[in-house]
Amino acid sequence: MSAGSIDSGTALAALAVVSFSFSFPATAWALHGFGPWTTTGVRGLLAGLLAAACLTRARVPVPERRHWPALLTVAGGCVLGFPLLTTLALRTSGSAHSAVVIGVLPLATAIVSAALTGRRQSRTFWTAAAFGALAVVAFTLVQSRGLPTLGDAFLFGALLVCAAGYAQGGRLASFLPGWQVIAWGVVAALPVSVLVAAVALVREPVHPTAKAVTGLAYLAAVSQFGGFVLWYRGMAEIGVPRASQLQLAQPLLTLVWSAVLLGEHLSPLAPVTALAVLACIAATQRAPRPRPGAASTDGS
Q1: Interacting residues of 91 by C-beta distance below 8 A, sequence separation 6+
Q2: Angle between helices 150-172 and 178-188 (to 10 degrees)
Q3: Helices and strands in the chain: count of H runs, count of E runs
Q4: 186-243 confidence digits (pLDDT tens)
Q5: CA nearest 168: which of 123, 243, 223, 109?
Q6: Quick check: pTM over 0.85?
């Protein structure tokens, strides 16, 4: 892999992380006018229609049968499971708190990817990834005074299903263009998205304010589709484990957006946590790159 490819992949993945960091504030906005099930169903429906239009215009053939298990994992984890569980969590947890809990997602994604591919990362990588996850967990416990909530349970389930979707989608992006991976994922989820949206729109109150509609539109166009185009392409270029660790910065970016856009309190510990997390990200990116099935290269 060339240095140019690594730089390009890192830039794409980093840009995706920035776009994802607005997702929780956008969800909080959407919940001002729509219920959690409506938000999940409509964002999936709109993203699916956008993806279907792109696939049709590009005349993309249907993926081979061997790719569909991974695509269905993307659909179940990233298109349905993660959006629903995080939306339910945001009914009781703040955007900033929820974002930091999800800070464990990069480590979970790296673990799932290692299990799927058999690529053994170096001890340096795992140490830095673990410290980064520990930093965000510690921050979360301080923020919540050490008491887990029902929202945290939803968030824990969300990070598990999303880690599987990230790892499978990143692996599949080595065979299909990144945009096609998420496009087929949201299209595969369309039947469920349509059903959820139809039922929820009847059962949940709807108050489509400008802020709520803006939040829902962002979730559909960027969080559910556009951001993943960059994310999976970046993963394909630099590998799932390394790309996933860039996401350690996402909770801290979300803290800033939550303070600016939602008026949530920004803890004095946030800058300290940010510096620790950035150091861990740098260490994971500089760690020796593994070969398939090979032992780590830094003495581990």
Answers
A1: 31, 36, 151
A2: 130
A3: 16, 0
A4: 999 999 999 999 999 999 999 999 999 999 999 999 999 999 999 988 888 888 777 8
A5: 109
A6: no
Q: Which two tokens stand for residue 52?
A: 């279907």
8 A C-beta contact, residue 74 and residue 185: yes
Contact between 183 and 55 under an 8 Å Cβ cutoff? The reply is yes
Asked if residue 212 belongs to a domain, the reply is yes
CA 211 vs CA 46, 178, 224: distances in Å: 17, 30, 18
- Tell me the backbone φ, ψ of residue 119, rounded to 5 degrees: -80, 120
pLDDT score, position 30 = 95
- Please state the separation of Cα 109 from the chain's center in Å: 10
Six-digit token pair at 1?
A: 């892999």
Buried/exposed code over 195-219 (b: 16+ C-beta within 10 A; e: otherwise): ebbeebbeeeeeeeeeebeebbbbb
Does a structural domain hold residue 296? no
Domain residue limits at 91 = 3-286
- The C-alpha angle 182, 86, 237, rounded to 5 degrees, equals 35
Q: How far is CA 54 from the centre of its chain?
A: 22
Question: Closest Cα to residue 77, out of 170, 5, 139, 148?
Answer: 170
Specify whether the CB–CB gap between 245 and 280 falls below 8 A.
yes
**76 in any annotated domain:** yes
187 falls within a domain: yes
Helix (H, G, I), strand (E, B) or coil at 293: coil
pLDDT-based confidence at 295, cuts 50/70/90?
very low
DSSP 8-state secondary structure symbol assigned to residue 42: H
Number of compact structural domains in the chain: 1
